[in-house]
Amino acid sequence: MKILVTGGAGYIGSTTAKALEEAGHTPVILDSLLSGPRAFVRDRIFYEGDIADRPLLRQIVAEHPDIDATIHMAARIVVPESMEQPYVYYRDNVAKSLELFDELVALGKPRVLFSSSASLYAFTEAFVVREEDALDPTSPYARTKRMMEQVLEDMARATELRAVILRYFNPIGSDPDLESGVYVREPSHVLGQLVLAATGLKDEFTITGTNHPTRDGTGLRDYIHVWDLAQAHVRAVERFDEVLNAVHAPSVVINIGTGEGVTVRELVSSFERVFGATVPVSEAPPRPGDAVGAYANADKAAGLLGWKANLTLDDGIASALAWSKRRHEVLGE
Questions:
Q1: 28/46 Cα distance (integer angstroms)
Q2: N or C terminus: which one in the chain shows less Cβ crowding within 10 Å?
Q3: 141, 183, 223, 295: which one is catalytic?
Q4: Quick check: helix, strand or coil at residue 231?
């Protein structure tokens, strides 16, 4: 299969492109390089440009008429930034995606696999969430993801578009060969911050929020290895039509997580065990837009995709640490 991957120069996009290749498929990368580095594209088929550029989309399909589906990953993803710049997030994540979806339908390429987010879920005392549970996105970033789910659901009912929506939980780690990973110098996510503190690039790791209604007061997340997440995309494109036929609907939402919840304090303990040393830690109030957290019920992914997470939290931590030593070599920084 040939798969168009928007955002394919990014952290998850480049890892997914590699997983597609290893499964015998051909990724076609479309990325503006606004954030993802050119080095992550490697020697793959690549178009530099915007997802809302209709002439470019027409060119891509004309040159690759055998594209079977689109994995749409291109998006802005930083929660605090979305609180400060909501217009930019709605423009890039929502308005531009609308142009992409409409043009894909016009071009006869209606299969869309969409990257959504577990940050959509409303707080539940049980912490485990199923796809049909209540939603309450707490940041502009999360609300853009929910809007795009609704757009896809509505378009799938009204047009030839078909959508498989994957709600990601919290990706960690790098690809197995350390060819790509978290590329920003100072990542905003928790494991990236821990790596910086452990390697002396930050004075300390800050736990943001210590009065949450969790077992130790810190936020709870479902940390999934990015390679497992990439494998879920491979399964989803390979079984795209089969999945929608099974649910008797033009669109479906599927959780992609490990099924286990880990608090920030527990993550710090696991990190220190893998790293082999303590990490200086401080505490601060939660950041604007931060959610208490949840972990996935991943039964639907197992049933529809034949997928489950295989790599452990320790695997993800070790992978992130190994990537931190190789990052400058790959990116030339």
A1: 6
A2: C
A3: 141
A4: helix
Is residue 47 part of the annotated active site? The answer reads: no
What is the Cα–Cα distance from 103 to 241, expressed in whole angstroms?
A: 20
Domain boundaries, the chain: 2-173+223-258, 190-220+259-303+309-331
What pLDDT, in 10s, does the model give residues 100-132? Answer: 999 999 999 999 999 999 999 999 999 999 999
User: Would you tell me how many other CB atoms lie within 10 Å of the CB of residue 179?
Assistant: 16
* CATH superfamily of the domain spanning 190-220+259-303+309-331: UDP-galactose 4-epimerase, domain 1 (3.90.25.10)
pLDDT exceeds 80 at position 206: yes
Give dist(CA 54, CA 102) in Å, integer.
9
Residue type for 280, please? P
Backbone angles phi, psi at 327, to 5 degrees: -50, -50
Write out the two tokens for 196: 């910086």
Place of tokens 């033009």: 250
- Give start and end residues of each alpha helix (H) in the chain: 11-22, 54-63, 79-84, 86-89, 96-106, 140-158, 190-198, 226-238, 240-247, 264-275, 299-305, 313-331
What's the topology of domain 2-173+223-258? Rossmann fold (3.40.50)
> Which class for 177: exposed (0-12), middle (13-18), buried (19 or more C-beta within 10 A)?
exposed
**Residues 273-282, mean pLDDT to the nearest whole number:** 96
Q: 97 pLDDT band (50/70/90 cuts)? A: very high
Please give the pLDDT value at position 187: 84
**CA atoms of 189 and 279, how far apart (whole Å):** 16
- DSSP designation for 267: H
- For β-strands 262-263 and 220-221, DSSP reports them as antiparallel
